[in-house]
Amino acid sequence: MTSKPDEDDYEKLYLVSRLVYNGEIDAEKASAKLSAILGSPEVYNKIVFSMYAGMKNGRVFQQSGGDESVVYFLRRIAQDEGPEALEKALNAVYGYTGFKGSVGCPMPELEDACDALKVIYGIRSEE
Q1: pLDDT tens, 92-110?
Q2: What angle do CA 117, 22, 33 make, to 5 degrees?
Q3: Cβ(47)–Cβ(15) under 8 Å?
Q4: Of residues 107, 16, 11, the one with CA closest to residue 53
Q5: Can you give the pTM of this predicted structure?
Q6: Distances from the Cα of 20 to the Cα of 25, 122, 126, angstroms
């Protein structure tokens, strides 16, 4: 992207990621269209699509579109699908932050944002 994404950009990324995940649009075509609309590199868009799929499946992903996009996607998943889907997405994000921490890149701000969402949506810790 030529500049820092704003909320409208994250919304577009979220909606298109959902379409790609549901098989309603081809990832290559979606990535190219988003690049034209947002000015984001196609590789970035594909990373975001993969991140969303990881969240939806509760699987750890190794790259993200940035902390702001992760938190935005978590909020939208919670709004659209409720606490159960959010819990699955949070498991993926906690796995991601654990992976990043293991390679020397701790992410305490993202973990704090996840913890706050758990409180907001009444998700209990397994600890």
Answers
A1: 999 999 999 999 999 999 9
A2: 95
A3: no
A4: 16
A5: 0.91
A6: 5, 29, 32
